[in-house]
Specification:
- It is a single chain.
- By secondary structure, the protein is an alpha/beta fold.
- It is 24% helix and 23% strand.
- The longest helix is centred in the N-terminal third of the chain and has 13 residues.
- Bound molecules: zinc ion (2 copies).
- One zinc ion binds next to helix 4.
Length: 291
């Protein structure tokens, strides 16, 4: 065990990261993903829409806030303790539960600790429109959330975590996100996208990759494409060389069919389910078997 830890520490040191070896060796300190929801926009009793909790020590970040996600998150931790919420695009199944979350804050006065909310370009106006649509006053969200629109070309720091973006191929502007922890672990989430070489590049060598598999059939999509079939999602993961992949954004009744497709793939891949928790080891920290 001691030898393994030493190798882990040395591997990390080679990468030039500045952190204490013990942090890496502690399983509780690694980057951790909790799948809160990974269904499509169609409601399902056991499967919220998109929502992924990423934690590093005390820092918790929520990627996407689809319908049903906040109720699921509340079972794990208080959403108001999040270090940040990052929304990839402004479709209902990725941001609509921001309305539900807002009601956990005082209605009339400013929140004592506003929740940092990172929206894509143009997202703040969409949120203002949502306040009006649900018959709330102007600025309804502004007193609870510390809202900024990220520049997708600039890395976003949230505590010790760094988020970078890549535009997906979708019906509206939509961004994939990569989140990197201090030990070099890299989790990539495609968000909604059609087939895209740029997305394969972005997902290259991800330690954990979440790929959308929203389509039953390619013929259900626009000719311009905006989602992936499961075989297309698997192909993306294989081409990217991701170390482990979870398929997300699929209707729960397709799970068995998607599992079968995954079993026939050379990739380490399977469909995600709500409630799944994975820790993410950086490639450099994986100890090769000796002998
Ligand atoms: Zn979408
Ligand atoms: Zn979606």
């Amino acid at each position: 065990m001691a030898d393994s830890l030493a190798v882990v520490w040395r591997s990390a040191a080679v990468r030039g990261r500045q952190y204490h070896g013990a942090v890496i060796a502690d399983a509780a300190g690694r980057l951790r993903l909790s799948v809160l929801g990974c269904s499509s926009a169609v409601p399902h009793p056991a499967a919220p829409a998109a929502g992924f909790l990423v934690e590093w020590a005390d820092t918790a970040v929520l990627l996407d806030v689809g319908q049903g996600v906040i109720r699921r998150l509340q079972a794990i931790r208080d959403p108001r303790e999040l270090a940040g919420v990052v929304v990839g695009h402004m479709h209902a199944d990725h941001f609509l539960d921001l309305a539900g979350l807002r009601y956990t804050y005082p209605w009339g006065e400013a929140a004592a600790v506003p929740l940092p909310l990172h929206l894509p370009p143009g997202g703040a106006a969409r949120l203002d429109a949502l306040a009006e649509a649900i018959s709330e006053r102007p600025g309804f969200f502004d007193v609870a959330y510390d809202i900024d629109e990220y520049d997708p070309d600039v890395p976003l720091a949230i505590g010790p975590l760094t988020v970078t973006f890549r535009r997906g191929r979708h019906y509206i502007p939509a961004w994939a996100m990569a989140i990197e922890s201090p030990d070099g672990a890299r989790l990539v989430y495609t968000g909604d996208t059609g087939p895209s070489d740029a997305m394969v590049d972005f997902a290259r060598d991800a330690d954990l990759l979440l790929v959308e598999a929203g389509l039953r059939d390619e013929r259900d999509d626009d000719p311009e494409r905006g989602h992936l079939t499961a075989p297309e999602a698997i192909d993306l993961a294989v081409r990217a060389g991701a170390r482990e992949t979870l398929l997300v954004h699929y209707a729960p009744d397709r799970r068995a069919e998607i599992e079968l497709l995954c079993e026939g793939s050379p990739a380490v891949i399977r469909p995600a389910v709500a409630g799944l928790v994975r820790t993410v080891q950086p490639a450099a920290a994986v100890v090769a078997p000796s002998g």
